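Lecture notes, unit on protein representations.

Consider one protein chain, 198 amino acids long.
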Amino acid sequence: MRIVTISVGKIEKVIMSGEGPGRTVKTAINKHPVSEIATPVPIFVGALGLAQDEQADLTVHGGADKAVYVYPAEHYPFWESELIQQAIESGPLAHGFFGENLTVEGLREQEVFVGDIWNIGEVELMVEALREPCFKFNSKIGFDAAGPTMVRSARSGWYLSVLQPGVFKAGDEIVVIPGDRETSIADQNALLKIKRRL
């Protein structure tokens, strides 16, 4: 279990795609890698997230409880195939494509539980909640069913809070200290499927 890529992004104005006339909104969903296995640059993470990273709407992303967004590298082949079927993209997607800060390997929603503690070097984080995709995600991915597809396929990723700030880098091992293990991210996703009637 390790970090594969660390990505950050700045708030920018973008035109949302989809049905009807486009509208301009602020978003920081467009992340780019700043630390990768080949070039493991140390990145500082504080109580509200990564250095040089921003979130546009703190009611749904960011803040103390959603400081760091994590997405499994193992989900990328699914989305690459899905986007080829939608005639949107072909070929490998760059990590950070889903707006995540940490692209990780060795952990998926079924194995990640709310309250678990992650130790990564000097940094300590806690698993808080799954990501609930919004209209900005649909626009970023390029089709209106992207959000429902994320929920139906149970490939949501999850948010972490930062208990102990510090520096980490791509390639660092993730050491998991289990919490009470009552609710997994997959469990939360199952409830979201019912709520959204998917």
